[in-house]
Amino acid sequence: MINRETYLSKLKSDSKYSFILSIILIIFAVLLLINPDNFINMFINTIGFILIIFGIFSLVSYFRCNEEEKFISNYLTNFVLYTLLGGISFIINSSIKDMVFIIIGIYIIFIGSSLVSDSFKIKTFNNKIFPFLLTFGICNSFIGLVISTNLLGSLFDGYGYIAALIIVSLIMHIISRLIILFIKESKEEIKGEEV
Question: Whole-prediction pTM value?
């Protein structure tokens, strides 16, 4: 059985990182909302350029190694992989656009399902916030499904609605993580355990 204090401490620690990632993704979504086509092209090209730079650094690191290190290192493999992925991102930019939203949608499904799971665990020692966390988790999972499958693509044109859904979902996620950061065990539950 997991210790409540340990679980709550880990959950609060994880919430801080999740909070920061959510803010970064909200900035991404706002920029996507402002200028969808140019931003997504620039974003994918930037990722491709960064991958090629990593590939070049891996190649330089490979040639700086002695013979024994070259045999056991992954530098040459990393060079090929990073350079190939970077080059592909420039060539098939339009196909990658859809993959970015699938990945973000899957991430939102993941944070939603994690929140549903966490809400049931938190319910055992603070049931007052359970309904809020459960609702946010279910809503995030549904929004992630809509984003990753582009369910509303026939109703809306462009990426604006996806950006709006990302922003709504991540604001709910940030609120839920703030609730978790400030969670305390309810006194009723503590009294019930001591009896």
Answer: 0.68
Q: pLDDT per residue over 3-28, tens digit each?
A: 677 777 777 777 777 778 788 888 88
Say yes or no to pLDDT of 182 above 90.
no
As a whole number of angstroms, the distance between CA 189 and CA 126 comes to 7
Q: What angle do CA 35, 41, 46 make, to 5 degrees?
A: 115
Give the residue from 112, 111, 133 showing the smallest Cα distance to 178. 133
Give me the domain span that covers residue 92.
4-194
How far, CA to CA in Å, does 87 sit from each of 96, 99, 108? Answer: 12, 16, 28
Residue 145 CB-density burial (10 A; 0-12 exposed, 13-18 middle, 19+ buried): middle
- Tens digits of residue pLDDT in 40-97: 788 888 888 888 998 898 888 888 877 766 666 678 888 888 899 888 888 877 677 7
In the block, which residue shows the tokens 């620690």?
13
Which residues, other chains included, contact 62 with Cβ-Cβ below 8 Å and sequence gap of 6+? 70, 73, 75, 76, 79
Total tally of structural domains belonging to the chain: 1
Give the C-alpha separation, 145 to 168, whole Å. Answer: 14
